[in-house]
Amino acid sequence: MHYRSVGDVPRKRHLRVPHPSGDGFLFEELMGSDGFSQESALLYHLRSPSALVDIAAVDDPRALQPAPTADCPLQPRHLRTADVPPRGDAVLGRTVLLANDDVVISCARPSDPSPLYRNAGGDELIYAQRGALTLETVFGSLDVTAGDYAVVPTSTTHRWLPRTDDVEMLIVECRHGHLTVPSRYLSARGQLVEGAPYSERDFHGPAAPLFVDGDDPGVIVRNAAGLTRLTHAGHPFDVIAWDGCLYPFTFSILDFEPLVGAIHQPPPVHQTFAGPGFVVCSFVPRPFDFHPEAIKIPYHHANVDSDEVLFYSGGDFMSRTGSGIGPGSISFHPAGFVHGPQPGSMERSAGQTATGETAVMIDTFRPLMVSDAARAISDDAYAFTWSGGRRK
Ligand SMILES: [Fe+2]
Fold it and tell me: How far is the CA of 128 from the centre of ligand 1 (A)?
């Protein structure tokens, strides 16, 4: 992210800064990525962020479920996330649907405030499908409403507070590493270039520090071993200033500026984020292709190196008419399957001039495993909708 400064940041780094209590000095924390050779942030704590008073193992709800298994026999799937019952909070109440060694894709319909949480494995990308939440972090607070992406960098202490009772979320969790904007959108010196589908103004970081007085209720930390509760000597939201290029931010999918051509444009024009082993694309309302003979829906295609996950957020998905797909649906098209428009949609598209669809696509470069929870909400008829339901 671009540089951001919040609170009263000292004039020079790494010099003594008097503590506002008059007793001692502030505690710097340099939060750095990739061995301190890439983006970092410098945070000024009132207390030592290392002052632990308790360490305890925590039951991991994921460990209570069977691990996702290979999609065998290979089949395209329609997952109805609306059939996942609301439960718990936005961290421990997640339902894992698809996963591999690079990424975990979950959904959640939380009603409770989450515990303080820190994912030490990788960055998290949350897409808010419905409702409104507050994302409180050690960097400050962010409002997250329907249509927003929120990116939470690795090891950011945070918690999710639902503000409405209809929250639905899609969660894309890096198992390792970081989410970035595609390098082709950046100048050699790091500015988003003209022609990129968004600008720095479209990304929103915390505007003010967040200070919470009192005790630490405990921070749930996820790493490869599972979950641990680390309890500190004081509440971890004690940062009074920070600056740098590493921080949580939001980006509305409706601020993505779609590229439209005379004929159908390929998926990379929709790319929004890059992650280790996957990409994220945004499909947003846009005029259709304008060549007089253009086929205004995707041709049949085989992304031979990827599994494709498409989360349908809103609008009318013309190319999927007849498949049962609607808002809240996920289509899962694994490598090895050629997919394309449903029967009749090419003809239906001829007189159309625009699409109002909103969707989030995750293409992974390694095969995804399928959870029992995903199989439980899978529409088995979907795989045969291209043949009009005819089965041998
Ligand atoms: Fe596709």
Answer: 22
